[in-house]
Structure formats: C-alpha cells, structure tokens
Amino acid sequence: MTQYQGMRWFKCDLQVHTPEDGKNWDPDDLLRLPNPRRPKKDGKPDEADIQEKARHFLRRCHELKLEVIATTDHNFSAHKDCRDWFLTHLIEQNKPVASEVGGEPLWIFPGFEIDIGYHLLCLFEPLSKGKDLGQISEVLTKLGLPTDQRFRDGYPNLLRQEEQNVALRTVLKTVQDEFGGVVIAPHAFSNKGIANDPAHKDDYKNEELLCIEITRYPLQDPEESILTGENPAWQRQHRQPAYIMSSDGKSTLKDKPNSLGYRFSWIKMSKPSVEALRQAFLDHQSRIRLQTAPPDQDYPHGRIVSLGIDKVAFLDNQKIVFSPNLTCVIGGRGTGKSTVLEYLRMTVRQDDEALAKKAVDRIRGTLQPASVLTLEWSGVDGVHDRFEFRPELVKAQVTGREVADPATVFKNLDIQIFSQRQISELAQLDEHNQPSFLLPLIDRLCGEELARRKQQELELVDKISQIMQQQRILQRLEQEQQAYEQELVELTRQWNARAAVQEESTRHRHAQDADRYLKRLHEEAEKIRNQWNGLLDDHVQAHSPIGSVIRNWPAREYFERLDIEIEKTKNLLAQDVRDALEKYQLRIRELMEANKEWPPVQQAITQAEQDFLQACERQGLQSKDVERLREIDAQRRIKNVEVEQKKSEIQRVRKTLKDIDLMFDEFYGLWRLQWQIRIKTIEGILTSAGIRKVPSIQENPVDAKRPFIEVIIKYSADLSHFFTLWNRLAPDGRTQLGRQWEEIGKIIFDSFAATTEPIPSPWFLLDSWFGNTAATPNLLKSNIQELKKHLQNNKNDLWDRTRLTRVKDGVDLILYRGDGSLAGSLQKRGLSDGQRNTAVLSLLLAKGTGPILFDQPEDELDSDFIFKELVPLLRHIKERRQIILVTHNANLPVNGDAELVYALEAKDGRGKIRTQGGLDREDVKQAILDIMEGSEEAFRKRREKYHF
C-alpha cells in the first residue's frame, strides 16, 4: 500500500537532557547513572543498567507521543568511550522499544548545549547507530572543548578560545557550514538566554541564527516586540528568527516543570532531518505551531486521500496519496500532469460541466478497456468512501457499500475543479460589464441562511400572486355587482310600472323578502349541521391505533389503555356535538313552526300574495299579464340572491386583501435581508481567508494592513438582469413606445440607482410614478400614461410577475496592488486579463472548505500578483482546505510551501513518477530545479545575471 510521503506535523522536543548530564539531572529521577557507567560483571563491562534506563527514557517519550527529540546534554559528555554515553544506548534501544510499544522509532537528533556567554544548542543529523556519535564529540573538540576540558567538578565549562568566549559566528560556521548541523538559541529570554541581555543584540541580529527557543506562549512583551521585529534595537534586516518551545527536560517524571515533553513544538517535515529543520526555521509561519493539540485537528475539511491509476494508455500504474493541504503536481510537457487532474474530475463526476467537457472528452481517449481509476475520499466527519471509474461505466460509482442515489453522494463532496482557461472564462464580463459568475458564487458561499430566505421569498411570491389574482377577481366582482344591481333596478321599474297594483305590489314584495329570510334561516341551520357532521366523521375516522410500535415502549400497558380511552373520548365528543347540532336545528324550528305567532306570519305572507293576485284581477289584467308579473317577480328574486351573493363574495375577497400591504413589507424586507446576508458573508469569508490582509512572502503579518481584493455588492444593481426582465415587457418595436423602450428602461434603472431612499425595486419606483405623475422624471413624463396603459392592460399578468421578481444584486470585484494602490475593478475594465483572473482565482480559493483543484492557473494570471498575492493566499488557505495544483511555476510549490510535490517525467513514451515528497527532500528539490528552473545550472546563471 502506497503511503503518504509528503510533509506532516511531528511532535518535537528539541531540548532534551539525559542522565548523561549528571549535575543537571533531577535527583528525584531514578535514571541517574552510576560511576562507572558499566560496572564489571564476570570481568566484562555490564551494560544492562544503562540499557534499561535508556529503554525507560524511550518508553516515556512514547507515552508523551513525542516523535522527535534532540538530546542536548551540556558539553555532550565527559566520557571518551562511546559505550559509556547514554545517547549510544538510547539510539540502540530505539527500534526495540518502538516494537515493544507498537509504535514507530523516535527520530533522535544528537547534539549538545554549550555556553558562550549565553547558551546554544547544536543539533546534527539523526543517527541509526550509536558508534557514529564520535563525530558529534569531535565538533565540540574543534570548537575548543576536548573531552578532558569539558567539565570541572562535574559542571560544564564555558566554550572559550584564547581566554575569550567563542563568537557566535564561529559556532555557526563550524556547526552549520562545516558539519551540517543547526544551531538554536535556547530559553532566549531567560537566564543564559541570548535575548536576556542587550549586550547580545548584535549576535541576535545574525540572520544565520535561524531559530531561538521560548518558554511561554502566547507571546508577551518584550518577547513579542523583539521576535516580530517591532523593537528597532533588536530588529533584523531581512527576516526575524523562528521560535519554538522545548522542555529543557531534566527528568522523565510526570507533571513536573522542565521534565521530558513539558513543552514541545509541532514541526512540519517530510521526515526529520537537519535540512527539514532548517527549512522549517526559514518558513516557520507555515511549518511551526506552538499548541497542545495536533495542528491537523484544525483541518476538519473533506479531502481527496488518493488517486489510483491502473492500466491506462499513457501513464504508468501509480497511486498518488495527496496532502490534506497543498499538493503540486509538476512535470515537463507531455508527462501527463494535466491528465491526472482530468482523471480526478472523472472519478468525482464533474466531467459533464460545459467548460470542462472538451478536456474530459480528450482524456477519455487515454483509457483502455481494462483501465481503472480509483479515488479514496475522507469526509468532514471522517467517514471514508471509495469511488471507481471504468471505461464501461457511464459515470463513476461508489464502491464498498450500497448507495440508493450515487448522484447525491457525489454532489455533496463539495469539490471544485478548474481546467486551463476556465478561470479566464469565469472572469469574462457580459455586454453590460457585469461579471455574471460572481453572484452565483457568492450565493453558494452564503449557504443555508440565504437559501432559507430565498425559499421564504418563493412562498411569499405564491401568496402575493394569489392575492393579486384576488384583486383582479375583486374588480370583476364589483363590476358584476354593479351590473346585477342595475338589472334589478330595471326589473323593479317594470314591476312598479303597473301603478294600479302599486300598493299591493309593494306589500307583496316585502312579504317575499320576509319569506326569503325565513327560508335562509332553515338553509343555514341545515348547512351548519352537515358541515359539522362531516368534520366529526373525519375526526373519529382519523384515529389510528398505536399498534405494535409500543411493543418496546416503557409502561406498555399504560399506552394500550390510553389509546382505547382516547378513542372513546373522541367518540363521546362527536356524539355530544351531534346532539348539540340536533338541538340547534330543533330550536330553529321551534322559533318558527312551533311558535304561536307562526300561523299569523304565514297567513300574512300568503295573504299578501292573494291580495296581489286579486288586485290584478280587479284591474282587468289578463292571465298573461299576471304570468309576466310573476316572471318579473321571479327574476327579481333571483337577481336579489345574486346581488347578495356578490356582496358576500366581495366581502370575503376584501378580507384576504387586507393583509397585502403587510405581506409586501415582509416580501421587500426579505429582498433587502438577502442583500445584507451576501455582504456579511463575503466580508467574513474574505477576512477569515486572509484575502483582506494577506502578507506577502517577504513581509511579517503585522506589516500587512492593506486589502488585496474587495467585493462590492450593490442592492438590485445588476443592469443586465434588469434589462432581461424589462425587455420581456416590451411592446411592438415599431410603435413609438417600443422605439424608446431601451431609453425608458435606462431612465428607470438610473433613477432607482441614484435614489437614497430604501426603495424595494425599480418596479416599485415605476409603480409610484403611475400614481404620482409629478414625481416622474421629466424625460419620462410624456410617456408615463402610455407606459401605464401598456403595462397594466396589455401586459397585465406579466407585469404582475415582474413586480414580484427581484433585480439581482450588482457585484464588482476590486483588486489592489501590493502597495495598497488601486489596480482596477472588473466592471470598470481597469484590470488586465491576468489581474482579473487573479482576482477571480482568489475568490474561488476563499469559497468553502472543500478541495479545490487547478490546472496550471499561472497561465491565466498576472505574473506580478502570483508571488506578491497568490502565494501568500495559498499559504493561508491551505490551512483550511485541500488545494491540488498542476503547475509549472516554481513560485507555487516553493514559496507556497507545498506539503507534497508529485513530480512526473516522460520515459519510454509513458508518464512515470520521478519522485514525491516535501521540499525538505533533496530529490524533490532537484526535481523542481530540473523541471521548473531548467536545471540547477540554469538557475545559477539567472541568479548571477540578476545579481541576487
């Protein structure tokens, strides 16, 4: 199985004393060494005691989960025989103890601590054999302390030559230049520390001293002002030193100050070496963390673990295990580095996107019938998945588990992949200078909060649309009511035209009104009973027994009895209500038919009918005239009912309309809230992503006070979207209004953009002009009535829908140079293509926490911004999301401090892996030089020509 070979975090304690340092070793710790170290047994030196103590020391390191230690006994050792050195046995017992505890062997940097007026640690390459330690002792001898002069009465001597303390530059030259070690100034702000005495500030400023050690964190003054370079008396010219924490351990006892692992540092390395430490010290912002928990616990993002490539036409079989941070895939032309990215795209189902389809279709030609692409994925929650793509499959599939809907699994991966030129295409502007991709990108960034508000908006659109439909219904009902009332007037006139029967006609009409009222009471009582009986039937039938679900409930018997009683109670309620309804209907009948006054009432109504007919007969009206009167009377009755129904319907509709103003207020409030969410979200993202205050690679973070990019979001200011909506409403272009349509739209949009009042939309503004012509702009006054008629009559339904459509927010992206000056913005076209692409790429990097992959992004970027802006941004973003770059620009892996460089080369017509790992590996550095710099010789010649 291929293992990850890039850089990772190691838990390190780089100032550890051992029992070798007898005078400084804690007297309570039982690991103190006897004298002689190896007493004679059977005439031979017995090493059992020192070996067991070495094993105990190592076991304690494993208990503390230390992975890297540096032994820094004062003046190394007073003993000449390496078998008497505790460190010899520590190295020899390293693998056996690791095997015993089921862990990996420790990385042990051998070294020593010396005193030149302040203390220094000198560390050297980890050794696998104790016999090789002799050269470490020789370094100290060369510095001026041979074995017999290192201690006096057991206490370490100062490092002196010719009665003078040895200079720091001498130690640096000897240890770092001649013997390939590294020097650290320990406990810098404490006793015997380099920064504890102003007399040492010139030594502190020596930039060959790469690292100092501190004893407390977070930093406090004066330590902070010195280490950050804010204190001018201690300020270095180019770079400030790295700083780490170490235990200065003098015992293996638990929970005791200055015991093993009491303080430690996390250092990012491919594998521990002096070169790895040197690079970490030179790039400490990226590679050193002083905290308790492992830094990778701060990486909660989902990530691509690996890509397996088998039996394809061009690339050799290989498995790429990616860094959770920054991976750079490099290689010369024709090595297949872009193919790797497209294979990744295919295995996560992102091969149908329009901008990528052409590249993917080309890559499909490299697959053979037996080809297999396998991607391993680790989600945010630590759940792992495995995806496979084979040529016979239409799409990549999830393997190893049953999945009902694979599309949902792939959709939720939150992976972004950008091929060459995609960034450039995303940065293009439309005909109105609008960057159309920006708003959808920002909306995805806003996530659930904005989505919820949009859903509320859609629900309100439905409600308001229904109400607006009701408004039109109301207008129709009012017109119908007027027509019915007028018809009733006309019928009444015909009825009353027979003056001879006027009096009887009037009494007859009133009697009929009374009769209709009594019949309506009966009908309403019957209607109420039927409605309530229907509700009661639903109520009783809706009861569903709990059933077997209660089998495992606590107190099961109680719930069974409760279910029975609830059903009984519902039935009792239904019966009680039915009885009440019967009583209600009976009471209505009692008030009429059973009432003693009822017969006279009925008689009066009947008498009015008879009097009317007799009057007609006395006046000599023929039967056909009577029939005509009866017909008119029937029509009057029907029309009366219709008028009453219309009035009732109008009243109901008006009730629904009374809340429309409140609904519109809520609706427009949602529009403005969405705008505010976008602003809040993008500001938070740019700030947290470091885009607002991104230090360049040569700067300290405290010096970076300028923004890099700025996103401006203006409320409903997308001119392109406005005209898309506006032009749907356009009349015939041959009319005068049609010929002026674009100009009218521009006046409306500009007036809306210029207003200082919180007007909901351009449509709202136009609507207000319809009701207040005086407020209409002069350029539009001659057209306002015709425009109103066109929209409210000819385009009524579409106009209503448009008024409920929000003009999208206008978005602009502003780019600043390294000195804080304005480079330009997308909308104003003040940016070059490369600068515009740089701004877009920066925003893409800031979006989300899922993996983001780019194929040679530098091809579309401004070269000045790559080093000054993009590289610092990569360094910041890679801490919170996985980044995979295919690149041929050395700035990105080197200054971006890639955790993994995966180098490909072309051999025998196939793309093969040349090497992989972190920049602290010699073979990786050489690959970068050869592939990206044109060889070490080419790089050296360019360096000579540029004089740097």
Structure in words:
- By secondary structure, this protein is α/β, with parallel strands linked by helices.
- It folds into four domains: 8-296, TIM Barrel (Alpha-Beta Barrel), CATH 3.20.20; 299-428 and 848-946, P-loop containing nucleotide triphosphate hydrolases (Rossmann fold); 470-657; 719-807.
- The protein is built from 31 helices and 29 strands.
- It has a nine-stranded mixed sheet.
- Mean pLDDT is 85; it is low at 693-706.
Topology:
Elements: E1 8-16, E2 40-41, E3 44-45, H1 48-63, E4 68-71, H2 86-92, H3 94-101, E5 107-115, E6 119-123, H4 134-143, E7 151-152, E8 155-156, E9 160-161, E10 164-165, H5 168-178, E11 182-185, H6 201-204, E12 211-214, H7 223-227, E13 242-245, E14 265-269, H8 274-282, H9 284-287, E15 288-289, E16 303-310, E17 318-321, E18 326-331, H10 337-347, H11 354-364, E19 372-378, E20 384-389, E21 397-399, H12 406-411, E22 416-418, H13 422-426, H14 438-496, H15 502-541, H16 556-592, H17 598-618, H18 623-657, H19 660-688, E23 709-714, H20 719-728, H21 736-739, H22 741-754, H23 762-771, H24 778-781, H25 784-794, H26 796-803, E24 810-816, E25 822-825, H27 833-846, E26 852-855, H28 863-877, E27 883-886, H29 891-895, E28 900-907, E29 910-917, H30 922-932, H31 936-946
Parallel strand pairs: 1-4, 4-5, 11-12, 12-13, 18-27, 18-28, 22-26, 26-27
Antiparallel strand pairs: 1-14, 2-3, 5-6, 6-11, 7-8, 9-10, 14-15, 16-17, 16-19, 19-20, 20-21, 23-24, 24-25, 28-29
Helix pairs in contact: 1-2, 1-3, 14-18, 14-19, 15-16, 15-17, 20-22, 22-23, 25-26, 27-28
